[in-house]
Amino acid sequence: MQRRTFIATISALTVAAFDPTRRSWLTAAEAAYPQAIPVPELDGELTVDPEALAEAADDFGHIVSRAPIAVLRPASVKDIVKLVKYANRNGLKVAMRGQGHSTYGQAQVAGGIVIDSRTLAAIHEIEDDRVTVDAGVTWNALLAATLARDLTPPVLTDYLDLSIGGTLSVGGIGGATHRKGVQVDNALALDVVTGDGRLVQCSGRRNRALFEAVLGGLGQYGIIVGATLALERAKKNARVYRLYYADLDQYVADQTFLAEDARFDYLEGQVLPNGAGGFQYMVEAAVWFSPASRRSAPDDASLLADLSFDTSSIEDLTYDGWLRRLEPTVAFLQQIGVWAFPHPWIDLLVPASEAADVARLALASVSPDTQDPMLFYPFPRRKLTRPLFMVPDEPVIFLFDILRTAPPIPGVADSLVQLNRSIYDAAAALGAKKYPISSIPFAVSDWQAHYGPQWAKVQALKQAFDRNHTLTPGQGIFA
Ligand SMILES: Cc1cc2nc3c(=O)[nH]c(=O)nc-3n(C[C@H](O)[C@H](O)[C@H](O)COP(=O)(O)OP(=O)(O)OC[C@H]3O[C@@H](n4cnc5c(N)ncnc54)[C@H](O)[C@@H]3O)c2cc1C
């Protein structure tokens, strides 16, 4: 085999050495060349399989594509430690990829190495109040394992096929957030491989600076390889209340009240087409209950008291059925191919005082017969405990998302990304922050504004834990 037979022509190959002059891989046969830097012995594999490279150069957004030069499929935490050290020595960039459900290249690495966390996905000990997992476990798998023991994670995202490491890196907002914070608030301890290749255990008591840096840290300071997460007892059923409003200001006022009042176990909400050329607004709230318990029948009258909705509906489901409610829709979208279309999402965190105005300005560009889901719901800031999960400085914050699907026509997704940016600019002037799962282009100066007074701290953390800037360049925070 010729020395120049590199990754472009090799199929399904585990590489043996790196050629730093050409910045490409060598096969086992070529590893004896003087310039070859052998790949450390791994339990898993470092592959240049074109399919693996193509998958790692893509994500749920299908908008940006940056090709890595290899993908690590780790079989142990040691593999990740070795790979990160190796990357540091050879000036390579690395990012962990969970389920690849980012929308704008956040887990991609041009010319670097993507670590696929799906091969590190064991659920370890489940106790009554906590569970220890590998970072590649999905919330879906975790929920199935815990519900078998009548336990549940306190906060779950709407869609469950996301990796635990992936959502702990961004925040993890869900219907229980108004009561229990985001998912990063419910992480008790982590195992982290820092950007310079140290394996460190951290928690609120131990190596706290790293713990707080990594939770909502967008993969910048360390790779989460394992986590201990809070669990609580699960109820059997969910009673779901859907409250419809024609008036946006009334909706925002009632939602703000509900976020603080916390009478529901679950509180979300959406903007929906009203069928008459405009929009309506829906509180989607739930309480959990078990038949035979003292709270067997939720008290509808007191749950709906003091609210000014126009119409309502009430539905009983199992707790599991409610949490998995999106599965049939996702299966259908996958079946008809729409799930694979571009997703130029905009996701904003908005101060309650400006929530109605931000909604108005964003909705001005949305067709009133859109089929894109638009989430719009609040949570109190005091429930958030992790310093790098950046939100506006107000007691109540609204999540506002337009979960766009674009037709796969050249230019359409890009123009929606530009629209996202102009909505972001107007919303940021009103105090909004980007939820960094979005497709909103950000320059370093935007990140600086995003972190505000924390920017110096963010730079110091990068220096402390990833001084060679090895980790997660796809977020674009440090140029
Ligand atoms: C259909 C759908 C529904 C969603 N619903 C919600 C929701 O209800 N609430 C919500 O908050 N979000 C939601 N999201 C957004 C989701 O939480 C983020 O996109 C999340 O990052 C996806 O997890 P992932 O495993 O796919 O991560 P990836 O997209 O693979 O990675 C995300 C980022 O985290 C980094 N990363 C991944 N794993 C690790 C790790 N172990 N250690 C360090 N860094 C890591 C990556 O490098 C990247 O920068 C949804 C997304 C989709 C597509």
Bound molecules: flavin-adenine dinucleotide
Strand content: 15-25%
Instruction: Tally the structural domains.
Output: 3
| Largest sheet features | 8 strands, antiparallel
> Residue ranges: pLDDT <50 for 5 or more in a row?
1-12
Can you walk through the features of this model?
The longest helix is centred in the last third of the chain and has 17 residues, at 412-428. The protein has an eight-stranded antiparallel sheet with strand order 18-15-17-16-20-21-19-22. The chain has a five-stranded antiparallel sheet with strand order 8-9-13-11-12. A four-stranded mixed sheet has the order 4-5-7-6, with helices on both faces. The protein has 479 residues and is of the alpha+beta class. Helices cover 27% and strands 24% of the residues. The chain has 14 helices and 22 strands. The protein folds into three domains: 7-118, 2-Layer Sandwich (Uridine Diphospho-n-acetylenolpyruvylglucosamine Reductase, domain 2); 119-234, 2-Layer Sandwich (Uridine Diphospho-n-acetylenolpyruvylglucosamine Reductase, domain 3), CATH 3.30.465; 237-441, FAD-linked oxidases, C-terminal domain (Vanillyl-alcohol Oxidase, Chain A, domain 3). It has helices spanning 50-56, 77-89, 139-147, 164-170, 177-180, 208-214, 248-261, 300-303, 319-323, 327-335, 352-363, 412-428, 444-451, 455-465; strands at residues 17-19, 24-26, 37-38, 45-47, 70-73, 94-97, 113-116, 123-126, 130-134, 151-152, 187-194, 199-203, 222-230, 232-233, 237-245, 266-273, 279-289, 311-318, 346-351, 374-380, 396-402, 433-434. Bound molecules: flavin-adenine dinucleotide (FAD). Flavin-adenine dinucleotide is lined by residues 59-60, 95-102, 106-107, 117, 135, 157-159, 162-163, 165-167, 169-174, 218-219, 223-224, 437, 472, 474-475.
